[in-house]
């Protein structure tokens, strides 16, 4: 099942005919205070709502996708947890130190939105395409054996990163949390439709140029380990998001006028745009220096 947010942050399900069926009315019984409550309410009560959602998706024609404005499928999670590294980069190096950071929900944008590069003196701005996990129930210190049961579904994330800011120049909260720096789309695919999350292909095309193109099988630490470890630090709630990290071998600069298409097989793709009032420029193509530096290290990479 594909759950999408659209127009004025309604929720819908993509039916068998590829149209979008509005299910927002089903959630009014839970008295949501605003759009940010719709997804957590849906996830929390999904078991009881699923039969009616499936009936609607199969029984009625919805809105054509080209007649709606898709929004970020996650609106206001209590937390966005991002992995630092977490890919082998095509090597057989030993596992890196497991580390992560929180990204501000203020940064969220969705399909068709624009990433605005701030005037801060970053050395470069990178795209980072990632598989993102949407949490399906409250999880505190969940065991690895039970961790996959805490997942609702998967979506696509592009972690926009400003390099060279802060004391060390390593991008974490400061370089990652500018408004518009968390792009999600096009919808959430429930976990039953992704039987093997390590058999997906992640790609990024920037103004028609292929950049990132890597398999999730290169992921260093599996999803159940991530959920278990993160939940031992901070309680996870329905609708929270864990972004599983990226393979750095296809990173490249984002700059004014770019059109960015991020895709993951089995989920879909979405487009966002880039604006920079300063019109800064960097070389086109893949940032080979960053790719080589990250691949060479046997510990936490210098560029997250």
UniProtKB/TrEMBL annotation:
Keyword Hydrolase: yes
GO MF: hydrolase activity; metal ion binding
Keywords: Hydrolase, Metal-binding
BP GO terms, sorted: small molecule metabolic process
Superkingdom in the source lineage: Bacteria
Domain Fumarylacetoacetase-like C-terminal stretches: 81-274
Family: Belongs to the FAH family.
Protein's recorded name: Fumarylacetoacetate hydrolase family protein
Protein source organism: Thermalbibacter longus
């Amino acid at each position: 099942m594909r759950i999408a947010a659209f127009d004025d942050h309604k929720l819908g399900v993509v039916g068998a005919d590829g149209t979008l069926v509005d299910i927002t009315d089903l959630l009014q019984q839970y008295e949501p205070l605003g759009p940010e409550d719709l997804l957590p309410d849906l996830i929390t009560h999904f078991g009881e709502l699923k039969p009616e959602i499936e009936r609607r998706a199969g029984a009625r024609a919805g809105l054509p996708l080209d007649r709606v404005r898709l929004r970020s499928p996650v609106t206001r999670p209590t937390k966005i947890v991002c992995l630092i590294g977490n890919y082998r980069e095509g090597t057989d190096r030993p596992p890196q130190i497991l580390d992560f950071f929180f990204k501000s929900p203020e940064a969220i944008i969705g399909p068709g939105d624009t990433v605005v590069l701030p005037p801060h003196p970053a050395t470069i701005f990178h795209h980072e395409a990632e598989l993102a996990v949407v949490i399906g129930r409250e999880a505190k210190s969940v065991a690895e054996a039970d961790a996959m049961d805490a997942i609702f579904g998967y979506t696509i994330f592009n972690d926009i990163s400003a390099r060279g800011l802060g004391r060390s120049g390593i991008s974490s909260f400061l370089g990652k949390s500018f408004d518009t720096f968390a792009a999600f789309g096009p919808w959430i695919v429930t976990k039953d439709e992704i039987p093997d999350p390590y058999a997906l292909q992640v790609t990024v095309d920037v103004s028609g140029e292929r950049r990132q193109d890597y398999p999730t099988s290169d992921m260093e630490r599996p999803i159940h380990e991530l959920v278990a470890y993160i939940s031992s630090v901070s309680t996870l709630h329905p609708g929270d998001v864990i972004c599983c990290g990226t393979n750095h071998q296809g990173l490249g600069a984002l700059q004014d006028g770019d059109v960015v298409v991020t895709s993951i097989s089995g989920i879909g793709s979405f487009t966002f745009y880039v604006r920079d009032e300063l019109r800064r420029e960097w070389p086109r193509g893949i940032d080979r220096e960053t790719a080589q530096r990250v691949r060479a290290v046997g510990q936490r990479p210098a560029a997250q």
